[in-house]
Write a structure and sequence with these properties.
homodimer, mainly alpha, Tetracycline Repressor, domain 2, 12 helices, flat, disordered C terminus, DNA-binding
Chain lengths: ~240, ~240
DNA sequence: ACCTGAACACCGTTCAAGT
DNA sequence: ACCTGAACACCGTTCAAGT
């Protein structure tokens, strides 16, 4: 505390992992994934590039920590006391909007399998699955299916917005461009995709995302008798 | 044809996009994503790095084309004449195994939103959704939900196996390591994740993946009356 | 038209040297 | 213990020069 007199006098706090992650988020937000550089980070924090390695293992660690900070705040905001089904939708919408604003979060999420940011999501979803009354044997299936669906949408949305930002267009224009591409595919080889292209243009992908969650939840409701009681009975028989 | 006498005499074909993509796949398979380099590619093809740019736009184009080639062959192999539900499972399993063998395909898939490789998947899935008897209004929802789920699993699996390969471990060991990490989380903050950690260790993630597809398909079956006939009726009313 | 390979403008990461 | 910043070992991409 007393040591860093010089920096404290300059009105800055000393270098810390927290400050580095914070600055990384700012760089990612303004310049995308290629905007995060150890050199740019060092300049922004008025230090040398090598100093950063004293607080952060490497660039992966940095990306990971930045993503985790965003996910943590989304999960905190989505923790309302509503019904399980509404809570799951709130988590989904929270992630959807966060990735809409910060595509780099979606991209990083697909690389962080089993690590903190995805575990946070799994925990949040899992608790709601339990509250939903899903039997223990099916909890992993339901939670991981929802998680994988959300991560899939996250990745695709991140790629879409990143591509849109690269060409200078707005996100909605990017979707229109995709729809236009699709309608020019060979009629015989891509009959389904072509038939759906028009529909894609009109649809709101936020609503589509929620409808997907509802579809999965409907599957849960439909299979509850077979997934729960019958398997529990089978397990009971097996252990006898 | 007659021009490239020198290369033909050496017993090589002339440089082409096809040969470049083929060599890229070989490099990606043996060295992972960091193994694909314009310098390594040039050496393998006995040419200069700059020559490659005559046939390929940039590294993204290369990655994209390599991924598409793999997906195309998976889709071709999965096109059996079985029942729609079985065909969807075959597509899923085909992709799962392809990504298991080549993690870079899963990673690239998450970056190629709306482009060829994902369109190929969408088309294959969509045709089965149509064959399943899903009403037109719900086809996009069902197909895109399945697609996003598959892409989500693809991304996570790719990250898992890539991480395992980096530490020199086998894939199953990596899952065990994740399970071990999870059981050491704070008991109060991560109660669900901890409770599921044991289950994760025993489960076969290929089976889990298929169970997720089945869960979504059960949601489709359950909501068919409401999603199809009632909406069709509403549409009919609206257009009157 | 196609290829060569040196050069350019970057990267992440390391490490002797400082305080 | 923490920080500096030059140096290292790479990248993707470009481009004059060749055939």
């Amino acid at each position: 505390m007393v040591k860093n007199t010089r920096r404290v006098q300059r009105g800055e706090e000393s270098l810390s992992r927290e400050r580095i992650v914070e600055a990384s988020i700012a760089l990612l937000d303004s310049g995308g994934e290629s905007g995060l550089t150890f050199r740019a980070l060092a300049e922004r924090l008025a230090t040398g590039a090598g100093a950063l390695y004293f607080h952060v293992a490497n660039k992966n660690d940095l990306l990971h920590a930045a993503c985790d900070a965003v996910v943590a705040s989304v999960m905190a905001a989505a923790a309302t006391g509503a019904a399980p089904r509404e809570n799951i939708r709130a988590i989904g919408i929270g992630m959807f909007d966060a990735i809409d604003a910060r595509p780099w979060v979606g991209a990083e999420l697909t690389r962080a399998a089993g690590k903190m940011p995805t575990v946070r999501l799994l925990e949040g979803i899992g608790r709601q699955v339990v509250a939903l009354g899903v039997a223990q044997q099916a909890q992993w299936l339901v939670a991981s299916t929802l998680l994988n669906y959300i991560l899939g949408v996250a990745g695709q949305n991140a790629a879409n917005t990143a591509a849109a930002m690269a060409t200078g267009a707005v996100r909605s224009h990017a979707l229109a461009a995709v729809a236009a591409d699709w309608s020019q595919l060979a009629a015989d080889e891509y009959s389904f995709t072509r038939s759906i292209a028009g529909q894609l243009r009109e649809h709101d992908d936020r609503e589509d995302f929620l409808a997907g969650i509802d579809l999965i939840l409907e599957g849960v409701a439909a299979s509850r008798p077979s997934v729960t009681s019958s398997r529990q009975a089978a397990a009971r028989k097996a252990s006898t």
